[in-house]
Design a protein that fits this description.
Blueprint: H1 2-36, H2 45-66, H3 78-89, H4 104-128, H5 140-163, H6 172-175, H7 178-200, H8 206-224, H9 229-234, H10 253-258, H11 261-266, H12 268-293, H13 299-314, H14 325-334, H15 340-355, H16 357-360, H17 365-390, H18 393-408, H19 411-432, E1 436-441, E2 449-450, H20 453-461, E3 466-475, H21 477-491, E4 500-511, H22 513-529, E5 532-536, H23 540-550, E6 559-560, H24 563-576, H25 589-597, H26 600-607, E7 611-615, E8 620-622, E9 631-642, E10 652-657, E11 661-662, H27 664-669, E12 676-688, H28 690-699, H29 701-729
Parallel strand pairs: 2-10, 3-4, 4-5, 5-6
Antiparallel strand pairs: 1-3, 7-12, 8-12, 9-10, 9-11, 9-12
Amino acid sequence: MTSDNGPVRRAAETLVVGLLIGILAIIFAISFSAIVFSGPLARFLPQGIGIALFSATVLNTLIGLGSSYRGMIGPPQDMTAAILALAAAQFAAVPALTVAGAPLFETAVVMLAVAALSTGVVLMALGRFRLGLLVRFIPYPVVGGFLAATGWLLIKGATGFMTDMPVQLGTLAKLGETSTLVAWVPGALLGIAMLVASRRVKHAATLPVVLVLGGVVFYAVAALAGYSAEALQARGLLIGPLPPAGMWQPLTPDVLGRADWGAIGAAWPLLASTVALAVVGVLLNATGIEFATHREVDLDRELRAAGLANVAVSAGGGLIGFQGLGLTVLAERLGRPSRAVPLVVALLSAVALFAGAGVLSFVPRMIVGGVTIFIGLDFLANWLVESRRRLPVSEYAIVLLIFAVAAGVGFLEGVAVGLFAGLVLFVLSYSRADIVRHRLTRATFRSNVDRPQADEQKLIDRGSEIEILVLEGYIFFGTAHRLIADIEARTAAEPRTVRFLVLDLRLVSGMDSSAVHAFAKLRRLAEQRGFTILLSEPPPAALAQFRRDAGGDEIGMPVLPDLDHAVEWCECRLLEEDPDWRDAPMEQLADCLGREVGDTEMALRIARYFEPLSLGDGGIVMEGGSHGRDLYFLESGRLAVSDPDGGARSRRLRSILAGNVVGEIGLYLGLPRTATVVAQGACGLQRLSEAAFETMQIEEPAAAGALHKFVLRRAVLRLAHANRHLLALTR
């Protein structure tokens, strides 16, 4: 029985949800049309309502079918309607549109069509090229200030609609007159009641109940005062009377020909800002729906769906619309998501458009104005009150700045000032960011060159003379200046110990020309204070900039392929200052063992089990992945240890000089070789085979124990170096 009634119950649930959301969508659409068709356009409000209902029908159909979220509601939008109202208000200053019989309505409709078409094309292009993530790059406080200013515009527009006069500085006194108070105060109280109720009662039916109660109270008070419906219409307290037909007609060549294209062109800044706001609105609403419903939303698909819907709407001079956050979440709370819900909303909007004029005529203006004031107050509450707790002071100041300028001077001026302030805040904030990820010295970060112990001790003693700065992020004039100031302070200390400064640029994403000039200043500072600057692994684009600035291939600073080679370069320069240092040292096995174990006779007994091995340049000592348990001691030359799986981008793991061993992992653990070891130039080695090692353990257990200590000490030294590296890089 349950199974049989399941589809019927779900269909009934979908119908009920669709009807409820549809009624709200119709009221919202009428409210937004009243914002646009106010002031000089107020006499065309019936046609404006028809345009709004046409828009709601088309938008909900195409967005509902094309969205990545089942059940997406796509109503006309308040944010864009507020800006379109500003554009339409400009027509009042055009003499050719203010005389009797002027094509004011045609110009307004074509302006709406141009805005919708432009918005649709831009949205479709962004979705086509998968640029939905653009919303992540818009400064959050700028969006907040923009929405707060939009809330102010909505409240002004709603008040003007209910009083049938523009809300300006010169008309404020009239708002206090008794006849005017009756027109706008009930709507304001309804908007405040909706705001309070929506915040205190978290239930999907809260707003519909408040709206119904508002209508009941309105007609109850009117009945007690003895007003009939005709009297209410005569006093302008109802939307009607509306014509029974002809509220909406598609664009025709005659309408396009009569429109004043010059006036439309003069409004291009507002139209452009409308397109930009629509892009932001689609992405923000879609992201908000994703968070609220815990369902994944494809931003690029939402852009394409909204774009196609707005292109279709433009054919009827419709209002811009896109994914509606509030209505979509409300529909989701009332029932399971279904593509049938937006289709029911579209159907109800079409019925209201073609057969519902009689009913809509009796909708009180206070209901339409109250809904609009509620939305405006909601914006103001979110961005002027509640955002204070979640935004830093500097970002909240930008929100207030945009709102103040938009309310006192103009909407576009507010947005422009906000964008400039956001840019300044970004520059200041990023300039304070530390682009130095790690500050190291040779004492904590050595190259991957295994040197004789005597040389290593010299480098440890002079480790503070090599300083390493690992930079990251984008370097521009602000961060470059801070870097130079930091280096100036560090190198000004007495006594001056820094001899080499390595700037590792591997993590730098880019730099501007001012940063390149800053590096030239840094090079001059190094010459004055007697230290050398090295660049490690600069990005190709940055290196090209350095060369252009220097006017040739020589940039005045050594450039090394990576940090490992840069630190080795500095180590070699320090060691070269020692007259006893040899670039290619030789270390006899017996001599090295004698120093390490402290017993020359024991060293000779160990050395008996090794056999000499000579390799030319490129000779392979061991290959990564191979099985072998031989141990090698390098007496002369150099060995290169590399990752066998690194390919062309492989970095060297180690570079081994005389006096060091290799192959101990295979000897003790029997694991496959973890690296490839190749001779760099002629090398002399001593090899301890697996068989010889086993023989030593049987014949000379004491010698084998001494060898264990020798090899273990070398392994522990490498582990200690690795631990210092790790500790330095995690501070």
